[in-house]
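Q: I'm writing up a methods section and want to include an example of the input and output format. Could you take the sequence below and give the corresponding predicted structure tokens, formatted cleanly so I can copy it straight into the document?
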Amino acid sequence: MAEQQWLSSYAPGVPATVDVPDESLFDMMEHSAARFAPQVALDFYGSTTTYAALADQVVQAAEALRRLGVEKGDRVALVLPNCPQHVVAFYAVLRLGGIVVEHNPLYTAGELRHQLADHGAEVAVVWDKVVPTVQEVAPQTSLQTVVAVDLTAALPLAKRLMLRLPIAKARAARAAMTGPAPGAARWERLVSQSPPLDPDHPRPSSGDVALLQYTGGTTGTPKGAILTHRNLRANALQGRAWVPGLVDGEETIYAVLPLFHAYGLTLCLTFAMSIGATLVLFPRFDVDQVLEAMKRRAATFLPAVPPIYQRLATTARERGVDLTSVRFGISGAMALPREVADLWERESGGLLVEGYGMTETSPVALGNPVSQARRVGTVGVPFPSTEIRIVDPDDPSVDRGPGERGELLLRGPQVFSGYWRQPEATAGVLLPGGWLRTGDIVEMAADGFVTVVDRIKELIITGGFNVYPSEVETALRQIDGVADVAVVGLPTESGGEEVVAAVVLEPGSRLDAEGVRAASREYLTGYKVPHRVVIVEELPRSLIGKVLHRQVRESLLSPEGTAATA
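A: Here is the clean output for your methods example:
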């Protein structure tokens, strides 16, 4: 799509392309440390780390890891919530030319075992509370050394002392943050006792692999996406170019998204560091903690997901907390409802725009202009240096025109180089010419704005008709008494599929399953009306709030799910 008609919708000052420097992510962080040495890089419950101190800690940690045997190309597993040690470990691994592999610290033993065995890391830096889980699976993997991180070590002194008070509340708070880790080395001791890494130690190059980021696995077994320093550096630059109103060295970004997720990693670990921002770290999203932090060190830029914006805006309004410092909000991972965007913008006075991305694109590829040209309900237009095509899902060589549904293809410097040790899976998504098959069905307007219709793998074919789950979900949410919904396709005895909806009702609702079906006929043509409805208490979600449709489907296929259907 050479004409790139979307460029006219860019916010003033946004370039059509970005020049990606020939530097590593460590070089990027080091340059920021030189430019903004005395400024606060990290804030953790009020304990601060300057850019100069961060750079010093990174090279000390790099030497500590080197002494543990980490060399260029080695994978190092990070199993950590958001905390200063996470940021330090991330850049320390990169300084050695190692490859970071991020893991959700709330994973089960089975989930961790699969990923650790797949990438073969011999060293893992782990939150001490989950060290026993990692140690449990270590014998079935290549893991040799587990280094335990105590989150409380990064707290301000007053908070550390409070956690040691002999009262139940203090004991409970301490138990939530730290735990015993017998048999593991201690991160704080290793780093504090290490000298800085020799400055002449070989540095990574921009083409080296920086990260293995495992995909969410909502449609199958997770795969490790291979992302280079250049991929991630490019996406940080694209993000910076997209918001020309930012001021380097003066922004405060809240890390309410997990750093182990591609979205949080880029917007907080790389983008924030690239512009010399202060990163306020939250181990998990807690509306009370975030609003308390707003009084201490107010955010100016907030990357989040729609449920977070909704809860923050609603609670801030109830408590009279000022959100007007937040000039820019970037929403991703799921559709941004208009009512949430309107609520947030009323309370903050800032702009909230929706973007689109995936792990394989580092992750952001499209975004709504950070201007009044934004279009709620769409994922916007391609980022600088990003090209798109809309094609026939069955034949990607055939392009679809404006207004026609098709699969979204992407090309740009942020596109990954493949899946770790899975050449067949890689060949299935990377086409000649560097085009990435996203697996998303979209429509593009004549001016280039893109609307996501659905996932190819989640498309339901019933009676020969195509049904897009998101379309049915949108309709059901309009029914009074429906709080949330997930729609999936389930097999029928005849070998086809039927539309099934798992529905969460609002408290006090008098609806039942058949009532939901009857009401849906007002919004949906006959073949799109759910054949069955299951009333559930809640829907399974990922840590960032995305509904896990695969788990919904498995639950509905179980005997309990079948018995509950109408």
